[in-house]
Amino acid sequence: MKKQYLNFDDLEQFDQEFFINDSWCNYCDEADLGIIEPKIYILDEKQYLEGNCKVCCKKQTTEIVVTYLND
Ligand SMILES: [Zn+2]
Questions:
Q1: Alpha carbon distances (Å) from 63 to 43, 60, 68, 69
Q2: I need a surface site. Which of 14, 30, 46, 71 has the fewest CB within 10 A?
Q3: If you measure from the C-alpha of residue 69 to the centroid of ligand 1, how many angstroms do you get, rounded to a whole number?
Q4: Confidence tier at 69 by pLDDT (50, 70, 90)
């Protein structure tokens, strides 16, 4: 399967800010440092967020788990 990139700017402002701020960096071993140059892509029917850590600038990829509040 090929990565299918989505347009990050098409997301709601709220979601954009959430994805940018609510991050986890494996290199810094810290949460919520923030990312720059965020990208979203779909691979094997899962969504991933890709971006560079604001602190160490290393690339990080996080799987986006969509949760539904009203089941
Ligand atoms: Zn980092």
A1: 10, 10, 16, 19
A2: 71
A3: 30
A4: low
